[in-house]
Fold this protein.
Amino acid sequence: MKKEVKNETKSEVFQKAFWLYMIGNILGFLMEGFWCKLKYGRWESHVVSMIGPFCLIYGFGAAIFYLCGRKLKNQNIFTQFLFSCLVGDVVEYICGYFLEHVFGMRAWYYGRYFLNINGYICLFMTVAWGIVGILFIYFVMPFWDNFYEKIKGKVLTKICYVLALIMFVDFMFTMVCITRWANRHKGYESHNKIINIIDKKYNDDFMAKRFNEWRFIKK
């Protein structure tokens, strides 16, 4: 049995979750791309960021599962499974609801799946999230905690916080560009110089190619 890591500071917990967030961003991008290659015979870049090959939903998922797993590691496996199902469903439902009701868009839709709720979540994915949670608790967390203990240091901490700032800027810039994309679709004009630059550089064609799995909902 691997030695349990004790006396962790809040900074260490943040760094562990953040690096998993970054790994999840990139792995999500690669997984989506290879899945499209296998299924459709072509590579598709399913990013959720304006800068870098990052699929932020996977990154947030990895960090959230890690943080929740820390609270669940001493619970029985049935409780861990149910809570993981709940966490996955809540995150997916909130993201799906936000996309539809704020931007008028969808990036996924489970309307044809058995026991779905508004197309945001479904039974199949609920079970999948439960399995992912169990894998995180029993395999990913012990490995990651022990691995991090071997590589942590002041240099890694500085890199972590600088990269966190860069990712925050990337996230905010992404939200601005997506919001403007949605507003253009609604016919909202802009008389702001900065927004006009965004309209020119990151126009509808650019955004549609960048977020190629996103679709506006036809009313």
About this structure: Residues 10-213 form one domain.
